Amino acid sequence: MKTALSVKHLIGIKDLSAPDIELIFSTADNFKSVINRPIKKVPSLRDVTIANIFFENSTRTRISFELAERRLSADVLNFSASSSSVKKGETLIDTVNNILAMKVDMVVMRHSSTGACKFLTDNIDAVVVNAGDGTHEHPTQALLDAFSIREKHGKVKGMKVAIIGDILHSRVALSNIFCLQTLGAEVMVCGPPTLIPKYISSLGVKVEYNLMKALEWCDVANMLRIQLERQDIKYFPSTREYTMQYGLTKQRLDSLKKKITVMHPGPINRGVEITSDVADSAQSIILDQVENGVAVRMAVLYLLAAKQPEE
């Protein structure tokens, strides 16, 4: 059994091997038992300082990382670009170097520019974890999604997973494709033709434009929201029309000949890509994803800090 990751930083799933991912999962299994006991902390990263640097708004990911860090007893420094010297014209490198001068060991960063995290690894000494960069990757989201599928179905290999929605602007979709394929799952993307990238079939995924056909094919449906904040032009006539064509409703779910698992990386636009009765149904593992996110991020931080497991 592998005991160390093959990478120094977590920039993208593309850099991880299947044994790397399995190691993260087995470590997350251990941490999940930790966070479900009365005393939820371990001293694994007691001597480590981690800076959360978010140049884009985020609630769930930032809170999940911060909770993971505190569960591991790390010292945590939170940095928000909206209330920082970035607004005064300070560069990314200057900002990070000023933070590192405070003796920070790890940086968790979200940035609107694709490749920002890779750029950082070339210019600073600290360990870098990508919490989402532009439309590139969001590796910890893909890891927690695959971990949740494994938890629900006992495996990832051989599972049929449909990723449905705004594929074009989604870093979650790209990371999920890489992660699921590495673990042996079959992947299909589904959405309006205007929101499916032209290159996507070259990644070895199936492409479907009809929602019902995608749902009939899959074991797991991962519903993505429409990322209006990243869209500079209109990709479909109206939100109402999108919902009519691609919204997952209880009626559509119940019309299938089998029970499928429903996922969503959040935040949910209820009534657009998914209705409340589906999001809150027994087939949904959306809240499990949130819980698993903390355990998976604990595992990633712990392994990158190159510590031996705590009993």
CATH fold call of the largest domain? Rossmann fold
Q: Radius of gyration from the CA trace?
A: 19 Å
Task: Determine the number of helices (DSSP H or I, runs of at least 4 residues).
Answer: 11
Described by the principal axes of the CA atoms, the overall outline is globular
Major sheet, described briefly? 5 strands, parallel
Instruction: Bin the strand percentage.
Output: 5-15%
Percent helix among the residues?
25-40%
Structural class: alpha/beta
Low-confidence stretches: 307-311
Q: How are the elements arranged and paired?
A:
Layout: H1 18-35, E1 49-54, H2 60-71, E2 75-80, H3 92-100, E3 106-111, H4 116-121, E4 127-133, H5 139-153, E5 160-164, H6 171-182, E6 186-190, E7 206-208, H7 211-217, E8 220-223, H8 239-246, H9 250-254, E9 261-263, H10 276-279, H11 286-304
Parallel strand pairs: 1-2, 1-3, 3-4, 5-6, 5-8, 6-7, 8-9
Helix pairs in contact: 1-11, 2-11, 5-6, 5-11
How would you describe the overall organization of this protein?
The protein has helices at residues 18-35, 60-71, 92-100, 116-121, 139-153, 171-182, 211-217, 239-246, 250-254, 276-279, 286-304, and strands spanning 49-54, 75-80, 106-111, 127-133, 160-164, 186-190, 206-208, 220-223, 261-263. It has 311 residues and is α/β, with parallel strands linked by helices. The protein has two domains: 13-137 and 291-304, 3-Layer(aba) Sandwich (Rossmann fold), CATH 3.40.50; 139-289, Rossmann fold (3-Layer(aba) Sandwich). The longest helix has 19 residues, at 286-304.
